[in-house]
Amino acid sequence: MKIKNQNQNKNQNQNKKIISKKEYHEIKKRKKFKKHLQVFLENLPSADMYERSYMHSALITHTKMCGFGFFVSCSIDGHLMFWKKTSIGIEFVKQYIAHQSAIIDTSVSHDGAFFATIGDDQTAKIFDVRSFDMSFILNLNYKPYAVSFIHPRNTTEPLLAISEKNSSSINIYKVFEKGKINKVVSIHKKPVKIIEYNHSFETVISIDESGVIEYWEVESEKNPDFVEFEYKLDTDLYEFAKKKTSPTNLTISNDGNLFACCSLDRQIRVFKFLTGKKVIHYDESLDLCQQMQNSGDEFYKLDSMEFGKRLALEQSLERSSALARANAIFDISGNFLIYATMFGIKIVNIKNNRVYKLLGKVESSERFLHLQIFQGKPELVSTSGVSFSQEIDPILFCTAHKKARFYLFSKREPADDDPVFGGRDVYNEKPKIEDRTSNSTSSSVFQKFTNAIIHTSLGDIFLQLFPEECPKTVENFCTLAKNGFYNGLIFHRVIKDFIIQTGCPKGDGTGGESIWGGHFEDEFSTKLKHDRIGTVSMANANEPNTNGSQFFITCVPTPHLDNKHTVFGRVTKGLSVVKAIEQTKTDKKDKPLEEIKIINISVK
């Protein structure tokens, strides 16, 4: 046995690193996080595709997760819907026409009991969430800009803060006193666009149009004494003003220690509340997205055609106001930040900056924007009237660009066959009158066409159609065929080992429209894939929901086209004709040198 001398022990003690109390607690936190990481992940949605979507009468602009398992969705026409979380998914509860014009902003009280909206009609509406009834109406004599419940612990009722669009004032209302302004706060120099209440520290965070962030207590209207800075110049609260960008939203973590902001420069910034310092910064600029695509990282990499389509959509977002609807949210543990990008919805671990999941990457028809999350246990009531909680069923609620739908991501992928809903996109809203008229005269006829024959100048191509999986697409194709639309049209695009394309009246790929005029929406099915030769699918304008009259037939399996183009048929006979068209010589624009025409298309 070797015995160490005193000098050896002394040297070893000198080599030991002495850490501070703060470092010790950080190490302890990291160990605790690693220990519970799997639990955190199990309480987050994980499916690659959205499980279900529900309709609104118009474009959805706002969503909020309230207390007691209630979810509220609002559309641009002033309508709002209450939904209730069930053991699996959600169910509709009640609908209101809250405003006669667009809803500008919404807020939920900290206890989840009240929900408020402000509208262009210069009114504020307060709803009791538990009874889903409208409780109060505030008639404002100004155009509102932002709204937030603020509820200090020493008050018996919630207060409502509403900022004015045309001044820097923030008006504080006592909710139960119907329109009486309790006080006016004027600490900003510009109109205030964002108001949020940090309940853990009983402090309001407000941001004006110039990007200046202010902390203030309701009573004193001053910066709280407990913050860990004396002057704002010692913080990063002037970050947006310095960068000359505008924050679009603010979300506070469950414990109040962090808050996150998205901004129009496509940066997501996370701040520590007590210090006002920026602790994390995620860059989602288009330049960086291009670099990620070029890097070849399979986690992000998209098909080149799909990436180009999404990049064009992102550029159009910047030219509109839609990007301002995007937000970032914390999970209930405060360890993960969730936000939508052009690649999909990222779930990022803010402890190590690792992206643990990318939801919806395959959903090429939707550009998700605004997110809300449910991570509790849905409370159900038994026949005896006793309430009880089910297993945790995390749901991520998402809005999408130019969509009158909201989407649900869960831990479940969409079912191939759903006898209850008939598909993952639920048609819970009645169609418009003109749509009902069109459908009443046509759907009973066109639903029964399951076969077609394309008579071409090189021979016949026999098709099986799928009206059950994509009724609108088959109806459009068959109606155009019966009306003689395709007669005499050429195959204008032929690419060897890829596709043959036709259906353009101009003969160059730029023409054609549906039987309803213009474009119609995609109809994707998990049963129908581009997994074989002879797949018949709709061409589009490299954007979701831009189907018209053009279609193509695949010459090889093309799985990268799944969920980008609607498959509505298969070639059952005549593949030799397809191959003959594929082998024809073409010019630099993939147009056959010798015209190959459709004589006509018969359907039955």
Keywords:
604 residues, alpha+beta, Cyclophilin, eight-stranded antiparallel β-sheet, four-stranded antiparallel β-sheet, 8 helices, disordered N terminus, Cyclophilin-type_PPIase_dom, peptidylprolyl isomerase, rotamase, Cyclophilin_A-like, repeat
Summarize the structure.
Residues 1-21 are annotated as: Disordered. By secondary structure, the chain is of the alpha+beta class.
Radius of gyration: 29 Å
Q: Which second-level CATH architecture of one domain applies? A: Beta Barrel
Give the overall shape: elongated
Q: Please identify which CATH superfamily of one domain we are dealing with.
A: Cyclophilin-like
Number of strands: 37
EC number: 5.2.1.8
InterPro entries: Cyclophilin-like_dom_sf, Cyclophilin-type_PPIase_CS, Cyclophilin-type_PPIase_dom, Cyclophilin_A-like, WD40/YVTN_repeat-like_dom_sf, WD40_repeat_dom_sf, WD40_rpt
Organism: Anaeramoeba ignava (Anaerobic marine amoeba)
GO molecular function: peptidyl-prolyl cis-trans isomerase activity
What can you tell me about this protein's structure?
The protein has a domain at 446-603: Cyclophilin-like (Cyclophilin), CATH 2.40.100. The protein is 16% helix and 34% strand. It is built from eight helices and 37 strands. An eight-stranded antiparallel β-sheet has the order 32-33-35-34-36-31-30-37. The chain is elongated and about 85 Å long. This is peptidylprolyl isomerase. It is an enzyme of class 5 (isomerase). It holds the Pfam family WD40.
What is the fold's blueprint, element by element?
Elements lengths: L5 H10 L5 H22 L9 E4 L4 E6 L4 E6 L3 E7 L4 E8 L5 E6 L5 E6 L3 E6 L4 E7 L4 E7 L8 E6 L5 E5 L6 E5 L6 E7 L4 E6 L4 E4 L22 H5 L3 E6 L5 E6 L3 E6 L5 E6 L2 H10 L8 H15 L9 E3 L5 E6 L2 E6 L4 E6 L8 E7 L4 E3 L5 E3 L5 E6 L4 E5 L23 H14 L4 E6 L2 E7 L5 H12 L8 E5 L3 E4 L32 E4 L12 E4 L12 E7 L1 H8 L15 E6 L1
Antiparallel strand pairs: 1-29, 2-3, 3-4, 4-5, 6-7, 7-8, 8-9, 10-11, 11-12, 12-13, 14-15, 15-16, 17-18, 18-19, 19-20, 21-22, 22-23, 23-24, 25-28, 26-27, 28-29, 30-31, 30-37, 31-36, 32-33, 33-35, 34-35, 34-36
